[in-house]
Amino acid sequence: MAKQSNQQTPTIDEEEVKVVSKVKPRAKVKTQPAKKLTPNEMKSRIKVAMTSSTGGTALGGGGNFYSPELSTDFLELPQSQDEQRNYFRFFYRTDPFVGQAIDLHTELPLSKIRLGMPKAKDSDLARKALNFCEKWAKRVGLLHRLIEIVHEYNLLGEVFVFCEDNNPDMPREITHKKKITLGANNQVEEIWEEYEDSAEKAYEWMKKNYKGWTALRILPPEQVHMESFPFTDQKMIQLIPDSKTKDVVERAGMDDPEALRIAQSMPPDVVSAIREGRNIPLNSDPNLGSFVFYMARKKSQYEPRGHSVLERCLRILVFRDKLRQAQTSIASRHLTPIRLVYAEDMDAMDVEALRDQVDLALQDPDYSIISNFQVNWEEMGADSRLLDLSSEYDMTDRQLYAGLGVTESLLSGEGAYSGDRIHLEVINTRYMLMREILQEMVEENMLKPMCERMGFVEIDDDGEEVVVHPTLSFTRLGLRDNQDTFDALFNLYQKGSLDIDVILELLNIDSETTKAKLKRDALTFNDSTFNEVLRGIYGEAGRMLAENSDAVETIAKNIGLKYVKPKPEGDGGRF
């Protein structure tokens, strides 16, 4: 029962009330008695305070108020970008659907990459550009770096690619000759004259000393501060040094040999910025040396940052995790089953005796309980207590398939192409778009600046310089029906409209190795047409033996036939 308060409301004597002042009546103002409000009118005038998206509080009307951004489950979702990235990484590691979908979106578009011969008037220049870029791609591991880029792009919605250039600058003496002369007023002047073969000298020096981008690194987005501005595509990007890097640079200043070795491998600008305690400004122009390339997964240009594939699935993933926690909590509480042992018409002594017998039976599996009355033993485990969540999981599974952009058969590897043909065609189109984005990034921001520095430049018909650089291409996606594709390609090969290298690459067969082995096996027993050659030789030898020996007469005699020699063509003629 609720306690009654002993406090009483104080009363005020009318004699103690004093009039302080009165409101003077104003002209042309009418007063009327206060109007009583109905209960519904009172509810409609109630104001409640709520938080706003910009901070602080705002007044809202009472009653049925709805806002998707103020619901309980929305407020439980991560609000800051760093917290969202932690959620994305957590569900990628723990959720099988999310991990498999992100891996598929990463690996399927990048089945195999290759560099194609650039289009150029000078075939030797194009071949040099291709050889240089192929060596660079193998040295930096371009395929593995692209896998990391696409994985970060799908998982976090954005990626910062830092292309590092630690190559030395070409001295001026390589292409110019230094002359010292006396100018006006007998002052010494330095004149640099360009060699006639300066282009060849520059190419030879670059060939020995320039190796392209020395490394491709993926920067953690938590350590990158970026600002974009309207009416311009330029961005201000700064790298925030982490505590580990700061510690290494600090120990390198104390002449620690291991830390000094690591600090010397870093760019000098980075080390000086860390020692001065400021952020590291990053260049975004590939023509000025080391630079950072920002690739975001967004549809609108005005959006400041990219969006992850998991952002639209986050509420579903949190809901599924809550269901899992509820089932785990119930299973943990019923890890040891609850035992209910009872019998009818027992007094207190019989209950205690039965309890002792049950305890002994639990301690010794071979112990037997013997009684002259019926004893009921029931155990309640987690089977009857767990929630039936099959419908919830089916619904959330379908939502995850739609949000992640995959199908169930694609995740599990089961099913036929004909059953999911439309879905796979949509996924294939998206992967082709992803390839176009990667091709533009690699060709325009990595291959083209390197070839321009190497001097792989031509003059086109309009008199403008054109950089000769290879093109990036990929093998076909493995989402289509292989048999139909192979038949179509083989028909093109038979008509002479396609080279055999394309078909061999579809079968994961190295065309260069195959050509070398075919050349080695030519005119040997391993040659596929060698048996036909032997048949032709044997046929020609048999004809010669038949014409120049008595083999035909001997065969006819052995089988009991009379052989008649053919008459010569000149005998028995008309003339």
Strand and helix map with partners:
Blueprint: H1 39-44, E1 47-51, E2 57-61, H2 72-75, H3 81-94, H4 96-107, E3 113-116, H5 123-140, H6 142-156, E4 158-164, E5 176-182, E6 188-194, H7 198-209, E7 215-219, E8 224-228, E9 235-239, H8 243-253, H9 257-264, H10 268-275, E10 280-282, E11 291-296, H11 314-333, E12 338-342, H12 348-363, E13 376-380, H13 390-404, H14 408-412, H15 421-454, E14 457-459, E15 465-467, E16 471-474, H16 482-494, H17 500-506, H18 511-521, H19 530-548, H20 551-558
Antiparallel strand pairs: 1-2, 3-16, 4-7, 4-11, 5-6, 8-9, 9-10, 12-13, 14-15
Helix pairs in contact: 3-4, 4-6, 8-9, 16-17
Describe the structure.
The chain is of the alpha+beta class. Among the domains are: 338-380; 482-521, no CATH class. It is 45% helix and 14% strand. It has 20 helices and 16 strands. The strands form 7 sheets. Strands 7-4-11 form a 3-stranded antiparallel beta sheet. A 3-stranded antiparallel beta sheet has the order 8-9-10. Strand 14 and strand 15 form a beta hairpin. Helix 3 packs across helix 4, helix 4 (96-107) crosses helix 6 and helix 8 crosses helix 9. The longest helix is centred in the last third of the chain and has 34 residues, at 421-454. The chain is flat and about 150 Å long. The model is unreliable at 1-7 (pLDDT under 50).
Task: Please describe the structure with a list of short key phrases separated by commas or semicolons.
alpha+beta, disordered N terminus
